[in-house]
């Protein structure tokens, strides 16, 4: 709402105020909203503006219309599905072999005939495209040659300045000199892995883990050691500690905030303990904070980096999940590995594209980012909620889903007899993409009855239909 | 001339026609040009337009004014300097350790107080910035969301289509499916190294070699085996053959066209022999063709890839040296390693920035690229020529320079007593950056009395003065 336009339309403003009241709990599930006439008087807007606002709130799933009765805040019934249990990965470091499966998942990602429940990307209509383009066009008028020359490491000073400012929100107080900009968080993580590990070394990760990270570990000749993880609180630190006592590891890589695929969020006390445990052993922590801005609750989680007193934490992030995936702008604050990461950045891609960085720096400076994030978070929360309800309605008994408190992913555990690879194949035949569980482990026999659903797209009857089809397919396989 | 503006000014058109006549040899060194009045009549332009055209040609070093006599095509005296000999690197594969020196070189690269003779980049005023910006702005009006979403591997179809068309100029007939787009040629080369080699493997390279490539080899835990190379014809194939018989190598990496730093160009028969030699032994050839479009002679060299019948050649290139370094748009045609390189691209940076690729695709499609290249090549050739003359004039006896037939780099061999690292340090103190020889070898004790000069900037009295200062410093160290 209002994210795309520089100045939101009147009905969007009205809808946003109501949405805020719902988020804040001022209006609660089941509450009756003011009548159209009441609200029109109170807000001093026309009847049709109020109707538009209500229609909009209904379309994003925040309210519902009851015939002859009025508009109500939508009830969030506690869905009847249980959550998956803490994962129990095999306790040995293994080479990674997920690549072939992964390419099958992303190759259909831009096919408009496919209902996209596979890839973990925000729908473009949730992003402030027009404002970004406007900043970009202004830059080409004002920046002269600056937009075409190399922006050498550590990268765009204007962007690093804005990152330093934002790091206060993460509980850190980093300076622009602490950052190096990168081609998205993926490059940042690759550079960190190269900076801290040598071939054959072991990297500790959560289980399940993002397949891109698994592929990076594979391509660099490293080994992955998967640690049991809870769908609520992420990596189990007792299990980590036991693993660290048994073997030498080169680094621990975690996604503490709204991990991919499960959406877990590590509690603050765990973050603190994790940072201390690793600093004591001199094992670097690579923190993938790419989803940190997408919290559904009122507070952004503090980054692990905020507890780092020794430079042992390498914090990675990007704007690919909140502003513009195709701009390829990410960053890393590599702590004591700064010099090495900067040299690696130079030898790996020389520089990050200049204009996309300058554009995002301007966008951040103009102050539209926080407002955009508020809207984006509310919409993602609503989309996830709708997805949970739809899975509860359509999937066979025994299905479990994680309850993410941020991001836009849903980790679904099917009854044990249902093979997620079979479901993936049949779904693709039916024009629906999902991400099957085995791609989220270094061992392709893991998570055979799990899959990940993306809730990045606004809820539509087409998506509802796709979830219903998926449910039928799952039932037929059960 | 006319490279920046969509429609060149009148004087630029006149200057360009004369420049073409000089390049083609119709007007030869020492020839008198038509008088201002004659040319004004012949070209049907004003006297002041002709004067402007002559001034312009003089400023780029193509003609000279003799008082009371008129304008003449500038004589290219055969400079008195000899060329360096074929290199004689140590015949053992070594880990690479150049990184610390390299960062000292590039860290001053955007400092306007420093005369930039160190970095191998074209000056921004030689690039078609305004036209690129115009295409970019048109895209933001027309392309909608396409500019902000991920452009997943293999990358931008429009750009790959244009690359396929251009591959005819390289002697290849590649299809758009043969290409994967990348964040510059550097990323392409890193992906190729990862695709063909495992840690500890040996990569054969020319000697001297580009420091970025050496760093990439270092960061991936590979070893470099440097092969003797001629400043004229590049890698010595007999030496390569002997090396291949002695040891197992994972790949050969060459820059056959206008290599960095020496500017050598491998003859066509050598390219053919190289490709056959490696195909027979099943050793992949990574061909870095980043400078291929910058030939001074009339013909673009054929790519090694054009002799490839088995998919054994991985061809890498980019638009960083010809259009826009800061756009970070490169490509690879990985032959039989296509699938592996595509997966690596995904795990390493997910995608290449979308809008820069679309912008370059449009620029190529509109047909301005060849015209731009003609102008760029002529200017680079002229800048290199001026630099050779200035080195001949200012440097101590015993100095040698390579004679590049393309690109914009000059490899200078000082008398053996002069230490290039000392020269580099003293030059930086004097506000001049150069690239000292040792960074171009895996062994930092190599090329101690060599350095590389960049001729990427239009000739100015400031540059002339810097070369004179460098010469004095070299003499004082001799």
TrEMBL record, chains A, B:
What name does UniProt use for this protein?
A: PLP-dependent aminotransferase family protein
Q: Per UniProt, which keywords does this protein have?
A: Aminotransferase, DNA-binding, Pyridoxal phosphate, Transcription, Transcription regulation, Transferase
Q: Under the GO molecular function aspect, what terms does this record hold?
A: transaminase activity
Q: What InterPro entries is this protein classified in?
A: Aminotransferase_I/II_large, HTH_trans_reg/aminotransferase, PyrdxlP-dep_Trfase, PyrdxlP-dep_Trfase_major, PyrdxlP-dep_Trfase_small, Tscrpt_reg_HTH_GntR, WH-like_DNA-bd_sf, WH_DNA-bd_sf
PANTHER family in alphabetical order: HTH-TYPE TRANSCRIPTIONAL REGULATORY PROTEIN GABR, TRANSCRIPTIONAL REGULATORY PROTEIN
Q: Which domain of life is it from?
A: Bacteria
Record Pfam families: Aminotran_1_2, GntR
Instruction: Name the CDD domains on file.
Output: AAT_like, WHTH_GntR
Record family assignment: In the C-terminal section; belongs to the class-I pyridoxal-phosphate-dependent aminotransferase family.
Residue ranges annotated for the HTH gntR-type domain, each copy included: 8-76
